[in-house]
Amino acid sequence: MYLPPDPPLTLGALSGLTRPGDGAELGREDLFFGSGRAALLAGLKALGIGPGDEVLLPAYLCESVVTPVETVGADIQFYPVSRGLDVDPAAIEALIGPATRAVVLIHYFGFPGPVQEVRALCDRRGIALIEDCAHALYSRLGDRSLGTFGDVAIFSPWKSLPLPDGGLLVLNRPDLKATAPIEGPSTRRTLTRLAYRSLGAFEQAVGWSPRLRLLRRNDLRRQMHIRVSAGSVEMVRGSAAAWRLLRGARRALVVGRRRRHYARLLDACRKLTWAQPLFDSSPDGVCPLGLPLVAENRDHWRDRLLAAGVNVRTYWEDLPPGVDLARFPDAAWLSDRILVLPTHQGLTNGAAGRLARTLQRLDRI
Fold first, then answer.
1. Is the separation of the CB atoms in 221 and 318 below 8 Å?
2. Model's pTM, two decimal places?
3. Which of 24, 147, 200, 228 could join 153 via S-S bond, C-beta 3.0 to 4.6 A?
4. Whether residue 218 sits in one domain with residue 166
5. Which residues pair with residue 237 across a beta bridge?
């Protein structure tokens, strides 16, 4: 058995290149960037944030959120996130000072944060709300899509769909203008990334991946993390292929399969002794990025799952250097314990069932 962590590119997904769809409802093609952090950088600039300004960020996050704020020269204040990924708006308000210009709220793993409360707070204090929807493509809160509450919102649709690249900036205020990217990736680079996204389909078919053994090496995982998260922000546009695949994606199919797999695995995870689900339900409207577990001795269980053919992810093993772990112990606790099981639309019902049985088998060993 091999289960990829992300939906692989299949022939069915490739048909999205020519199929009209509803992906364009998310935003405009001229604000389709190569990555979510490039979109965030453009959003910060659209808000006029720069040196002397301050942006509030959650303490549990990846370097990709920090880098754009540092790039515009703004200062960063971190606010606490609980072990259940809860955010207290009162804790955010206590940090707002004269230089504060914006709050970034992350919708972790597709589950809505307290966006209505933080929206009201930002309106009351006269600062901007930036919704980080990198995990929350297609998720909703009530009758509204996540990403429609903030002054600006950013998405990383390649995390939820088999795209070669892509970061989307959404501007929800008519007075905001963003500089559109003018340069895109080369055809060769796009084809290379498409081939990489298709590799998961081949690995899943043969039931084995050479990546599983490599991912058990701590040094290699950290090198990959640094390559993806660190470094400068490339202000390039997303590829035309990624935009067409986004437009042609079948939203209802993606949401339905992800929710169905999540529910099936959640039932199995409730019975585990070595890990507990971070969220005990999937509220209406949530399109889960995956199923996050918290596990003591997390690295041991990750290696056991990798050995069983399940390519699991951790979020995030290494928090940005600016996060004071002594000041934010809950963020450190999450960083040491989270494992995310795949629930994506590329899994068949049979594969989800095998994963559920694998989890229960590990529990008995």
1. no
2. 0.95
3. 147
4. no
5. 33
With respect to residue 74, please indicate whether it lies within any of the assigned structural domains. Answer: yes
| Partner residues linked to 167 by β-bridges | 33
Q: What is the C-alpha separation between 234 and 223, in angstroms, rounded?
A: 19
Where in the sequence is the domain holding 85, given as residue range(s)?
A: 11-171
Nearest to 197 by CA among 10, 3, 2: 10
| 266 shares a domain with 141 | no
Of the candidates 235, 252, 249, which has an alpha carbon nearest to the alpha carbon of residue 32?
Answer: 235
User: Does 55 reside within a domain?
Assistant: yes
User: 3-state DSSP call for residue 133?
Assistant: strand
Per the CB < 8 A criterion, the answer to whether 325 and 331 are in contact is yes
On the CB side of 280, how many CA atoms lie within 13 Å of its CA? 5
Please indicate, yes or no, whether residues 137 and 221 belong to a single structural domain of this protein: no
Q: Which of 104, 139, 171 is the endpoint of a domain?
A: 171
**What pLDDT is recorded for position 345?**
96
Work out how many domains the chain is built from and give that number: 2
Mode of pairing for the β-strands spanning 167-171 and 152-155:
antiparallel
Q: pLDDT at position 49, please?
A: 98
**Closest by Cα among 210, 203, 191, 234 to 42:** 234
Q: How many CB atoms lie within 10 A of CB 77?
A: 17
Return d(Cα 310, Cα 117) in angstroms, integer: 38
125: its two tokens: 């204090």
Mean pLDDT over each residue of the chain, to the nearest integer:
93
Confidence (pLDDT) at 343: 97
The reported pLDDT for the residue numbered 24 is 46
* Token representation of residue 36: 């979510």
Residue 321 belongs to some domain of the structure: yes
Q: Is there a single domain that holds both residue 160 and residue 275?
A: no
Q: What is the CATH number of the domain that holds 332?
A: 3.90.1150.10
pLDDT tens-digit map of 123-182: 999 999 999 999 999 999 999 999 999 999 999 999 999 999 999 999 999 999 999 998
Residue 108's pLDDT is 98
Q: So what's the pLDDT on residue 132?
A: 98
Residue 300 falls inside a structural domain: yes
Q: Average pLDDT of 234-252?
A: 93
Beta bridge partner(s), residue 75: 54
Residue type, 328: F
**pLDDT-derived band at 340, boundaries 50, 70, 90:** very high
Distance of alpha carbon 42 from alpha carbon 13, whole angstroms: 29
Instruction: Clarify whether residues 153 and 224 are in a common domain.
Output: no
